[in-house]
Amino acid sequence: MCMATDPTPFLRGLYHLIPPDRIAHILDVTGRQSRRVRRIPADATARLVVALGLFADLPVPQVWRRLHPGTDDPDPVSSAFCQARDRLGVPPLRRLFEEVARPMGTHQTVGAGYRGWRLMGLDGTTLDLPDTPDNARVFGRPGTARAAGAFPQLRLLALCELGTRAICGLSIKPGRRGEQVMAGPLVDRLGPGMLLLWDRGFFGYPLAERVLRTGAHLLARVPAHAILTPTRRLPDGSYLAALYPSPADRAAGRRGLEVRVIEYTHDDPGRPGCGARTRLLTDLLSPDDLPAADAPVVYHERWEQEKNQADCPSSRGWVSARRTGYHRGDGAAGTGRVVSRPARRRTRRTRMSAPARRLAPPRA
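Structure for IS4 family transposase, as requested:
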């Protein structure tokens, strides 16, 4: 956020989303409430950490002043902020995120749904961290057989409501951790009435079956190497196939998960993959529920999450110590960033849905 931006609407959104009684309850449950009068009490510290995500371009003392504009008291010294955040620790911030992170779109939110299903996205990215011994120990460094990378790196995986870009679930692990391994607990946060979109990196029977067990539906891109043999052609050009847990199950024709495959091409020379075949997979077997011509346009909504990552208060994939507020202790790095997301999404304008792209007819 630009320093010149009027902070009033952002602070109103913050207090509406996270009222004082919510913070007080979380501090009581986690045992982190202040036990004596302090210059920076625990509740003010929690709100400060969230506000750091709103005012990512400002130093901590200036963020403090925006949260306390009506006081003539001098600002706490820098060491007081560090000590207050160490006292607060990780549990209250994690609990706060878990309570606040949820879908926020309504039936009036443009782009939040398709035919009554709430559009959700699952995607990940990697971020470089400050080169400290604690970060290197907790998150590790990328590298090759010849040398380790210059900076520690984390992998961030997020479940996002695409219409509002609201983060509904988040996993932060060492950069070497695979996204499919991290995705399971986030998938479990889905439920009936949701349509999940994901990229080809998540393709596979275990994760797809786990999505369907939640009652949600799936629309996913299929990698080029995936074997999906047509079992029945449908009038709209799509076809039914089966997704199997293993090659042995495919050979025996057992334990298959029936899916529908939609193939399409696009004819825009300005976009990558012009003329190339793209395959989408869905458990919506009837073209009446998801016409083949609609599927690529709906899938394009996944880019709302890509834009969300681009909006993160970091530059060139770098997470600064100021923004996340690294604490001492395992896993504390990144907690401030996790909790700052609910406040950012609350005050974000409603995004318009992506325009329909020029699509060639699905292949027969």
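Confidence is low (pLDDT under 50) at residues 313-318, 321-364.
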